[in-house]
Structure formats: C-alpha cells, structure tokens
Design a protein that fits this description.
Layout lengths: L1 H13 L38 E4 L5 E4 L9 H11 L4 H6 L2 H13 L5 E3 L2 E3 L1 H5 L3 E4 L5 E7 L2 E8 L10 E3 L1 E3 L2 E6 L2 E6 L1
Parallel strand pairs: 4-8
Antiparallel strand pairs: 1-2, 3-4, 5-11, 6-7, 6-8, 9-10, 10-11
Helix pairs in contact: 2-4
C-alpha cells in the first residue's frame, strides 16, 4: 500500500487525475471526488478531524479507517499537497518515514507542525485538539500507538504522558464524536 501511495504522489506531479468515473470503486468517498490520491500518502494520519478513526479489521489487527475522510479527495487540497511536496527532492520523499509525512500533513493543514516530540514520544494530541471546543475534565485515558512500516503495530491505553514508551505516538481516545486526552497540560474532552 505504501508503494501505491508514492506512485499516486509522484504521478500527480505530472497530472492531477480528477474524478475517475471509470473506476469500479468510484465513488469510494463521495460523488465528484478527486481521485488523484487513490492511496493516501499520509496514511495512517491519526488525525480524527479528517474523518478517520481506529477500527479492528477482520483479521483482528487495528487499522486506521479512512472511509469517512473527504479531505484528500477535494481538489483544492490535492493542489496544496502537490505544492507543498514540489519543493522536496523525490528521493527524500521516497525515503520519508511516517513522521516525515505526518509533519508534512500538519504543515499543509495548519501551516506549521503542532505535534511535538518529547523524550522519544511524539505527542499528536495538539494537532487533534487544535481549535476544537474543549472543556477540562477529570483524568482520562488516551492512546499510545506504535507505527511500523506505515501500519499500526500496537495500541495501548495510558493515563499519563510519562507512561508512554519511546517510539510511541500519543493521540486522544475517541468516543461518540468526543476526543479525550491531554492538551496544554490539562485533561480535556473536545467535541469533534
């Protein structure tokens, strides 16, 4: 899947696909979608605001489901993504790891990186909570995720950033449209 994502990205530098109505899966997200990124270069983005979420696959593994993501299939976003990556050598893009692509996504979405690395742990909660309506709450669980080769290798529920292990990525826990975790050193619930 990673190889297909890079092929989509590199092909898009030559030509934006637009709607691919002859595809047997069209529309896989919505009518009129831009199909340039059939395979998303940011997968798994771990940003709930784009419509994705963690689900258990039929094999019992956890995956990031993008079925409700529209963002990557909107023409103006395709153009912004291509504009962003056009300044990078293709070799650097081809060798980019999950962190490279997630930081790129944050730069495209927000204009800067909101995630922060502390003691080998990448805290992606600020990017998930950014500009959401949040209220302070009692201590709550959130998720520590390990990514290997652009796939979710493991997920743990933790209650403190100090419980995270080097190499993990911290994201909020999601339930019924509410994100729970730590933001600006306080426990919060935020409406998605």
């Amino acid at each position: 899947m990673r190889e297909e994502a890079l092929i989509s990205l590199f092909s898009a530098f030559d030509k934006i696909v637009g709607s691919k109505r002859d595809c047997e899966y069209y529309p896989c997200h919505f009518e009129g979608q831009d199909c340039t990124f059939c395979y998303c270069p940011f997968y798994p983005c771990l940003l709930y605001r784009l419509g994705g979420e963690i689900v258990k696959s039929s094999s019992g593994d956890y995956v990031w489901s993008c079925k409700n993501c529209r963002w990557i299939h909107e023409r103006e976003n395709v153009e912004e993504i291509l504009d962003y990556f056009s300044s990078f050598p293709r070799q650097l893009i081809a060798e980019g790891d999950w962190y490279f692509f997630n930081r790129a996504l944050q730069n495209v979405l927000f204009g800067f990186e909101l995630g922060e690395e502390v003691n080998g742990v990448y805290n992606l909660m600020p990017a998930n909570f950014y500009k959401l309506e949040c209220v302070e709450t009692d201590k709550t669980d959130f998720l520590a995720i390990k990514i290997k080769d652009f796939n979710i290798e493991s997920i743990r529920r933790i209650r403190s950033v100090e419980d995270a292990i080097s190499g993990e990525i911290l994201i909020p826990e999601k339930s019924n449209g509410i994100l729970r975790g730590i933001y600006k050193n306080r426990f919060v619930e935020c409406k998605l």
